[in-house]
C-alpha cells in the first residue's frame, strides 16, 4: 500500500500517507497519517510529531499498510484504532455500534444540568445504548447513580458492558439486549436516548464512513426520520419517575416535530441544548403535571 520500505523514517512514511489520504478526500490527512502510523508503531501521534527522523520498525510496516488501506477505503478511523474518546472516557468501538461523537456530549451536559446534585442516587436508563457512552459518561459524574443500558443488538450490549468494566463502572451498571423499553419494569429518574433519526432515503447520501460502515439499525429513523421518536414518546410517560427527565438526541431540524410528538404523548418540553455547531441537539422532556396546563414551555 505504500512505497516506503523498512528502514525509512517516520517523515517519509507520513509524507506519502498524507498525500494518499488527501487524494482520497480524507479530512486532516496529515493528522490521520500520524494517528495511523502511531497505531502501527504502538506510540502516540505526538511522539511522531516530535521525531520525524525516527526509523519505522520493520514489524510496523505491514500493520501501517493495512491500516492505511482501510482508511483509504473510508473505514472510520475509530474502527481502525478500535477506540474512541467520549466525555472523559476511553471507549472500545465496533461495527455493531455508532461511533460516539462530540455532538452527543450535549446530552450529557443536559442530563447533568437537570440533576446538579453530584450525590443524587439516580436511576438512569439509556435506550439504544450502543457503546454505552451516554450512560457511562453520566455515571462517571454521578457516583451514586445506577444505570441500565438497553440495545436491540446483542453485540452492542456486550460491548457496552465491556466498556463499563474497562472504565470502572461495571458495579453501577447493567446492560441487556432487548426491544428497548419492552423488557423493563419500574421507573427512572433520567432516561437517555440517541435514537436512529436519519430519513431512510437519506442514508445512502451520508459520508461513506457512516453510510457504509455504521449499523443501519442505529441510523434508520424511517421515511421521515421520526419512527423512533414515536416509540419513545409513547413509552416515556410510563418510564419516568415523578420529577424525572428524559434527554433525547435530535437530528438537524427535528426539534419542532419531536416536541409535537412529546406533547401529544403527555410530555412537557423543558429545554433544548445546542451542540458545538449550534444545532438543536439535546431535547429535555418531563411529564406534564396531572391537571396542569397543556404546555409549560
Automatic annotation (TrEMBL):
Listed under GO biological process in this entry are: methylation
Q: From the UniProt record, report the name of the gene that encodes this protein.
A: prmC
PANTHER family on file: HEMK METHYLTRANSFERASE, MTRF1L RELEASE FACTOR GLUTAMINE METHYLTRANSFERASE
| Segments forming domain Methyltransferase small | 120-202
Report the function annotation for this chain: Methylates the class 1 translation termination release factors RF1/PrfA and RF2/PrfB on the glutamine residue of the universally conserved GGQ motif.
Q: What is this protein called?
A: Release factor glutamine methyltransferase
- Write out the similarity annotation: Belongs to the protein N5-glutamine methyltransferase family. PrmC subfamily.
Record GO terms (molecular function): peptide chain release factor N(5)-glutamine methyltransferase activity
Q: Which organism is it from?
A: Falsiroseomonas oleicola
**Family annotation (Pfam families):** MTS, PrmC_N
EC number(s)?
2.1.1.297
Question: What is the catalytic activity of this protein?
Answer: L-glutaminyl-[peptide chain release factor] + S-adenosyl-L-methionine = N(5)-methyl-L-glutaminyl-[peptide chain release factor] + S-adenosyl-L-homocysteine + H(+)
The record's HAMAP family line, in alphabetical order, gives: RF_methyltr_PrmC (MF_02126)
Where do the Release factor glutamine methyltransferase N-terminal domain residues begin and end? 16-82
Question: InterPro entries attached here?
Answer: DNA_methylase_N6_adenine_CS, HemK-like, N5-glutamine_MTase, PrmC_N, RF_methyltr_PrmC, Small_mtfrase_dom
Which NCBIfam families would you find in this protein's record?
hemK_fam, RF_mod_PrmC
Residue positions binding substrate: 194-197
